[in-house]
Amino acid sequence: MIEFDRVTVTYDGATEPALRDVSFTVPEGELALVIGRTGSGKSTLLRAINGLVPHFTGGTLGGRVLVNGRDTREYRPRDLADVVGMVGQDPMAGFVTDTVEDELAYSMESLGVTPDVMRRRVEETLDLLGLADVRDRALTSLSGGQRQRTAIGAALTSHPAVLVLDEPTSALDPQAAEEVLAALQRLVHDLGVTVVMAEHRLERVIQYADRVIEVPGGSAAVSTGLPAERMVTAPVAPPVVELGRLAGWMPLPLSVRDARRAAVALRTRLGEVAPLRPLATTGDELARCRDLVVGYGNVTALRGVSVSINAGEVVALMGRNGAGKSTLLNALVGIVAPRSGTATAAGADPRRTPPSKLVKAVGLVPQEPADLLYAATVADECAGADDDFRVPAGSCRALLNRLAPDIDDKMHPRDLSEGQRLCLALAVVLCGAPPLLLLDEPTRGLDYGAKRRLVEILRELAAAGHAVVLSTHDVEMVAEVATRVLVLAEGELVSDGETATVIAGSPAFAPQVAKILAPLPFLTVGEVATALERAS
């Protein structure tokens, strides 16, 4: 179905190819998982499948890519639309209509599908992806996860033979991600659709993959293989695999179910050892909401939320897509106005605080990091942040190097990968070291290495007396860094407590290690490694 034959892609002005001499084949009816570090070239590989590379991106394509017998050098993306459905990292960039239902129908209209078939497929897709309750909503009013599901649905309605997905679950809550992945499984197994997916959250998808395509970046060769074989040496691996490596299990388990079967002896060894967790030292109150109510038109996003955030805390906001997490962050920086109740940051009403003063007290990295980036190059962006926050020259660049090394100073921010762009936005905001740091989905597009480096930075900030609030669906990130978890549902605060207490027993929010070792109270592979050293 898909064949790469000695493919090399070089973008205009680049000193090195983004992909070099890539050859592999994906047969019909397989799910191929593309893995690699942030910025390694995964998105370039995906875009070559539907002709976006080079017809839209420019540059030079050497070798050839065949999709269902069509050479993408000769067929432009519009000529492949009946065969390939594509969902990029930024759903809003691909939308062409105003409402959910119209977006689902658009691709079928372009292909001349009859109205009765269009209606049936739209209804099937609304049910399949849980979008029926937002079918008439404006796309701009949706949460990030709802937008992502709409983008996936828009690609599915035309019934493509090949579906290409770039980070399809990055903005989805665990339950929504499972529903999307289950739908993809049905497409692959029952309808013979070929799915090629790039995803950093391997803990969600590795057990479903038929093959793994590893894109290491640089001059290293792209390689393929069976998931269990690739995970033995892969530099990026989910916690279930990391735990298997630590325990010496062979073959390595790819699912929680298989890992629980292998973990009987490990649970016995750990039975008398408690995990070591540093105690959080909290200080003054840095943010407060009291009976906060926020709405958008007829939709009430927050319903009487009361919460206090103190210095030294790393607080995770969790909940389903559309639960009100982003709205709470936006209220703390004054982007949205309360209908009633109050939201204060650094002791002041953010809507009545001059921006020049507010930015020194509160920093927000939004879901769309490009909203913070305006300069023509990475170097200019970093230099501007240094000047704005009056810190020594090179401070922002040093933070960027910690998060994502090897980003070229001369690149335009829009030419970066989604993960690299997020790292740049994080570096810009972190440069100011605000007392209160708000992060909205801060791990979208980040590989495991980048997430580990971000965790280190957030821990340093908390130890220095800053408060961090992160809205996220990344339960593994929460297990690593959060000292406290708030769970929102339908705009209401339904849970507030220590991380281990809130997430360990939750079917939706428990990390993989907690599920594998339950009822033992371990959350991360690091905690297990430390406990084994103490037990030996």
TrEMBL record:
Residues 2-243, 287-515 form the ABC transporter domain. The keyword Nucleus does not apply. PROSITE patterns: ABC_TRANSPORTER_2 (PS50893). Belongs to the ABC transporter superfamily. SMART domains: AAA. This is Energy-coupling factor ABC transporter ATP-binding protein. It holds the Pfam family ABC_tran. It is found in: Cell membrane. It comes from Kribbella turkmenica. Keywords: ATP-binding, Cell membrane, Membrane, Nucleotide-binding, Repeat, Translocase, Transport. GO terms for molecular function: ATP binding; ATP hydrolysis activity; ATPase-coupled transmembrane transporter activity. CDD domains: ABC_cobalt_CbiO_domain1.
